[in-house]
Amino acid sequence: MASVEKVKGPASYFPSIEKTYGKPVAHWFALLDGLAGRKHGEQVAFLKSEHGLGHGHANALVAYHRNHGRAPA
Predict the structure, then answer these.
(1) Which of 16, 41, 53, 60 has CB atoms 3.0–4.6 Å from 10's, for a disulfide?
(2) What residue ranges do the domains of the chain occupy?
């Protein structure tokens, strides 16, 4: 019987983000695509102030997006 590896890091927040805000993570990544060139903290602040995300959720999205450049497959 194969064990399922637990998701770690920023991606572990994705189910909660989708449930809490009612949009897929791809939606948030598309917004972050439009903020290319801005600093990490500026991107987090944008998601918090303009879209009402909590700090942890916004930070997880930005960190993943900056490290992977796109939504998970």
Answers:
(1) 60
(2) 11-68
